Amino acid sequence: MAIVALDLLAGHPDRLRRVVVHEPPLVELLDDPAPHRALFAEVRDTFRTQGAGPAMARFSEGLGERPAEKATEIPPEIQEMAPRMHANMPVFLEHMLCPFTGTVPDVAALQGVPHKLVPAVGRDSRGQVPLYGPATRLGELLGIEVVEFPGGHVGCTEHPKEFAKQLLASLV
């Protein structure tokens, strides 16, 4: 996860050569994180009372996605891992969504290693402030370029080959 990698880079920069953080949802970097914190808390509460399906529907709606925008077929390259991803959804919704998005990155530590960091965004995420906004803000704070990847937040599953090509290019 991008937030963990960013924290690792801030705390142990000598252990990493280069880190690509694709849309870390670090809403605390935004000018007004409150509405995003509220959305994520609502998604978690919806999970607790109604289950994963309604919670993810609320999450997508809160990000401005319409159901027709999502692919209806999983790319063959990731069909094998889809059941594991689905099985992990309760852990994500209950234990990760709110704590991770509420993380405040150590920008001061990262200012010492901007050459090791590539903030990345998905081309299709431009209107999704809690996803696109933190990476662009991080780039601004550190004076480094933000790299655009194919697809949206899950571009690696939407366009796996193109995403991998951009990832490899970003690691050099």
Looking at the structure, what is the overall shape?
globular
Number of helices: 8
The radius of gyration computed from the alpha-carbon positions, rounded to a whole number of angstroms, is 16 Å
Low-confidence stretches: none
Can you walk me through this structure?
The protein is mainly α and 172 residues long. The protein is 53% helix and 8% strand. The protein is built from eight helices and three strands, in the order H-E-H-H-H-H-E-H-E-H-H. A three-stranded parallel β-sheet has the order 1-2-3, with helices on both faces. Helix 6 (129-142) links the parallel strand 2 and strand 3 (147-149). Helix 2 packs across helix 4. It is globular and about 45 Å long.
Task: Quickly describe the structure.
The chain is mostly helical.
List keywords for this structure.
172 residues, single chain, mainly alpha, 8 helices, three-stranded parallel beta sheet, globular
Topology:
Blueprint: H1 2-11, E1 19-22, H2 34-50, H3 52-62, H4 82-101, H5 107-110, E2 117-122, H6 129-142, E3 147-149, H7 155-158, H8 160-170
Parallel strand pairs: 1-2, 2-3
Helix pairs in contact: 2-3, 2-4
